[in-house]
Amino acid sequence: MKKIATIFVLIAGLFMLSPSPASAQVVTTPIKVLIVYDAPSPDQYEKLGFAYAIMLRNLMGHFNSTVDLVSIQNYSAGKIESYQATFYLGSYYNNPIPAVFLNDVNATQKTVVWFKYNLWQFAWNTAYNFNTHYGFSFSGLQGLNAPPSSNNPTPGFFDTVSYKGKSMVKYYAYDPASNTVSADPDVGITQIVDATKAQTLVTITNSKTSVQAPYIIRSGNFWYFADLPLSYIGPRDRYLVLCDILHDIFADNQPVSHKALVRLEDVDALVDYGTMKTLSDYLVGKHIPFSIATIPHYMDPLGVYNGGVAEEVPLSQAGTLKRSLNYALARGGKVLMHGYTHQYDSMRNKNTGVSADDFEFWNAVANTPVAEDSTAWALGRLQAGKAEFQNNGYTPFAWETPHYQSSPLTTKAIPQVFKTTYQRAVYYTSDTPNFTLAQGKDFAVGQFFPYVIKQDYYGQWIVPENLGDMEYNISTIDPYSNVVYTWHDLYLNAQYALVVRDGFASFFFHPFWLESSLAPLVTTGFSDFQSIVQGITGLGYTWTDASTLGHP
After folding, report:
1. How far apart are CA 226 and CA 217, in angstroms?
2. Is 470 helix (H, G, I), strand (E, B) or coil?
3. For labelling alongside 273, which of 165, 194, 483, 517 has CA 20 to 30 A away?
4. Residue 61 to residue 551: CA distance in whole angstroms
């Protein structure tokens, strides 16, 4: 049977992590930023605040900035004054805030941004005269309207952030079997008491009660977010509000500019030349530049798609692949490297063990780094794949990690070989993550970006993919392909991405959805592709060559 590549859970755009006006001049010198986070010890969530700090630090990579991260208990008096902006991530309820930090926040004229928890330690301390100073009051937290149950599975909470005409609905899921909630419902409730000092910039609404509250308040140099918009992020989520309003916090005078990107995905030795020709002809006919995420070395070690006989096809022997690439490149396509083999060893990791189906730089079965994991090992594979391209006359302009997940040591190798990546990414709170510890366990967080990140936590320059891709349920012939994500979903994601003033509409598409072998399960692959291209064009995005967005 023809290989059908599988999807990774991150492509649908929802990244889950559980527990619970200044100058209008363009900024030319780096902004010094301090990120302060909760790290209670010993505790099972000791490193969760650090995970959020990494995510926020990644967003800072969009701006001309230098960033330092420090836990709140390690904050030293006067440190705020060395930075133009300080962000405190209140992720742990009632984590003690040192008096030296509160004193500095109260006294500084520098920008301070406070998220979610523990504001009461500042606002209710009479030593700071908070209400008079800042012009707003803090009354407390509100979470779920009632405990959920099988009879009342969705009791409601402050879940809808209104921004630029869009309703950003926070993620919520309830499992009645285990009586567990996957959500981050708590918000800090504030009220303006002096409109000459404080303004509500964004609101949040409890969709069950219709009660509205401030979501973002600004009082001069002090900003307050009612929750932590880095939890349970998605393509229609209040995470986009944070991404956009950072421009206001930094007053960088960023003009409105919206670009679109399209990438043909998982192109390997088994690619169908006809589908590549059809897609290439359509895109060049629309004057749309495009990228081809190519796997240079095909592996099927278990013979899953070759009658039980192991198969290996290097690029030098992949005639149909090279013919497809040459046709696309002659029409404006650009090649990027999508893994070396896009699978790991001879194991099912965790699908078939075949190129494009499986993880390459992460043991997805055990949820650990692979046995050989090291930066040196990863460098060897990266360099081997790049050499295979170059020896066959191709120069990949960027890297894309298979299934968007690799170990920290692998990810640190990537900038040593590729100046540019084109992807989403997973970040860890340790270079050797351990997710099983009772206290101080590590966390992994997946993150997408609505714009270019010039340097992330691992030193990568990232061209964004933020919409996801189309998926069809073909589980009757491939049990690993059972998710449906339509072009309408991508189109809606693109509409939401417009709230970010320099937000992208970037998606990818698997050419095999056009293949006749999938009929009658999939018959609309090409028409759906045309629909999303036309839809994004109609929203006013400008189609852009991804290779022009890379590291200079």
Report:
1. 8
2. coil
3. 483
4. 13
